[in-house]
């Protein structure tokens, strides 16, 4: 039986999300939750047939009272033209984008000495460059203003608001126990950093020289960046 949401039904009624990699795994679970909350979701990845069958399955679970829809759109996030098409098609379909969940990507566990340059580049190209392209398109290029203007609709003062959620930070921190590299993790909230460091430290094999160190730093503050 599916777990019921902790959020109020209808919380995201009439909102629109794009979930990259939304046809499988974590992305599919996020999509399912958003749909249950009334949010329409565009799921995208490279394999259209997998997206289409996920969309069909997810559609059957949407409550009949909900305005939510799920639409599959093929897109390789490494390809700028395809990312542009994803954003433009979503705007054309729904007239808005509220959430962008940068979930599409992947990595493989490998000791660093066995990792090929090709494998490394593929992971970076997808997780880093792909995420960058989606954020760039979502935030700067497909501005709501431009779309509304092109379609002759009034009220185009409402700049598109996109909340980007990226799932790769966890992967980066997890690299510690994969490649045996020490990591300094930093953000503004020291207590959160300390508990993350404690959790990550427990996963480091006893044979590994790696350490995780939390250092508080607001990256907007040049002095803090220099000192840390
Ligand atoms: N599971 C974990 O423990 C874990 C831990 C840390 C981080 N993560 C990250 O969380 C995300 C989801 O993980 P998951 O476990 O749910 O894995 P998953 O089922 O393999 O999901 C990855 C999704 O990303 C899509 N994708 C891969 N390359 C893409 C590309 N170039 N363009 C567009 N879509 C692409 C895949 O679809 P196509 O093949 O159809 O493109 C797939 O739907 C991944 O980014 C992963 O790196 C997972």
TrEMBL record:
Name the Pfam families on file.
adh_short
- Give a yes or no for keyword Transport in this entry: no
Q: Would you tell me the Gene Ontology cellular component terms?
A: peroxisome
Superkingdom assignment: Eukaryota
Metabolic or biological pathway, per its Swiss-Prot or TrEMBL entry: Lipid metabolism
Q: What class of enzyme is it?
A: oxidoreductase
Give the GO terms filed under biological process for this record. Answer: fatty acid biosynthetic process; phytol metabolic process
For this protein, the Enzyme Commission number is: 1.3.1.38
How does the record describe its quaternary structure?
A: Interacts with PEX5, probably required to target it into peroxisomes.
The protein, known as = Peroxisomal trans-2-enoyl-CoA reductase
């Amino acid at each position: 039986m599916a777990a019921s949401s902790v959020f109020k039904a209808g919380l995201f009624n009439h909102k629109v999300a794009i979930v990259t990699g939304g046809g499988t795994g974590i992305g599919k679970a996020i999509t399912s939750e958003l749909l249950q909350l009334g949010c329409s979701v565009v799921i995208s990845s490279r394999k259209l047939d997998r997206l289409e069958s996920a969309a069909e399955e997810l559609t059957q679970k949407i409550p009949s009272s909900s305005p939510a829809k799920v639409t599959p759109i093929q897109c390789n996030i490494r390809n700028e033209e395809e990312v542009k098409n994803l954003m433009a098609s979503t705007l054309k379909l729904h007239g808005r984008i509220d959430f962008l969940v940068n979930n599409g990507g992947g990595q493989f566990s490998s000791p660093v000495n066995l990792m090929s340059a090709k494998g490394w580049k593929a992971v970076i190209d997808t997780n880093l460059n792909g995420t960058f392209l989606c954020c760039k398109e979502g935030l700067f290029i497909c501005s709501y203003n431009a779309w509304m203007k092109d379609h002759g609709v009034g009220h185009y003062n409402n700049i598109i608001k996109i909340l980007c959620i990226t799932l790769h930070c966890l992967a980066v921190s997890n690299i510690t126990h994969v490649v045996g590299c020490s990591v300094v993790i930093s953000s503004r909230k020291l207590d959160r950093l300390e508990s993350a460091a404690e959790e990550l430290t427990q996963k480091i094999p006893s044979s590994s020289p790696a350490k995780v160190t939390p250092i508080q730093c607001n990256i907007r503050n040049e002095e803090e960046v220099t000192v840390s």
